[in-house]
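We treat protein structure as text, and this decision shapes the records that our systems exchange. The tokens are whole numbers drawn from a learned vocabulary of local backbone shapes. One such record is reproduced below, unchanged from the form in which we store it:
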Amino acid sequence: MARHLFFSGKGGVGKTSLASATAVRLADAGLRTLLVTTDPASNLADVFEQEIGPKPRPISAVPGLEAQEIDAAAAARIYRDKALAPLRGLLPEEMLRTVEEQMGGPCTVEIAGFDEFITCLLDGDYNRVVFDTAPTGHTLRLLGLPAAWSLHIEDSAQGTGQTCIGPVDQLQTSKEQYAEAMRRLRDAEDTLFVFVSQPERTAVQETLRASQELAALGMSNQRLYINAVIPEEAAEHPFFRSRREMQRAAVGDLLAGFPGPADEVPLLQEEIKGVRLLRELGKWVTADVCAVR
């Protein structure tokens, strides 16, 4: 079954909770698991009620599970300092400042964060790697970067020989890694994309659009969880009955338009916080996502 699981969706639909619950369930099954968030506004530390950092850190209440928050800005600073260190004392300060400014743009930050993502994707130390991604648009940009960056390297090699993070001749290993990343992302046996949506119009539209865009990138192994569905037994009150009817219409649209398997997760009474509730939520994660083999 898929070694890499990507949880994606509109902000606020519950993908962090479901990604975390899945990671806990995999670790409980005896698989060494890494949970990675690429969301700059991640609340992973709140969900697990412990500090999470830019390097893998064990989750104290779940043996076999480690978690990591990718900090693109911090990674860019480390890269910049490492690249400039040999030049200090050799170049005039004014020239150093110019180089530092050139390496301080959004391209450097994006690629530095992307390199951290690639490191996690290619890491062979874990049985499963679960990615809790940023909201949909950011994720689509991230997943499209391997092909775009490889093309940029090729164009730079034929032109100035420079990229925003250094000379092309120092990046050939990275180019090979990006090509391997694309191969794994497109390999249906290696990677599964798990969309999380809620049964409401804007979330439905964003989910179906993102699914099509991922398929256009060659990433077609997809499944869907429709989260926070009001249970039928809770719809006795007219307000909840009306809301449930609206939800059923949205669920119908999702099931009609989504290309992969889909399941519903009921609206739960408590905010998902702490390992106990993550294990409760994990009961709704299906076997195809949490397969041990």
The mean pLDDT is 85. DSSP finds ten helices and ten strands in the chain. The first strand starts at residue 4 and ends at 8. Strands lie at 4-8, 33-37, 57-58, 65-69, 128-132, 162-163, 166-167, 191-197, 222-229, 262-266.
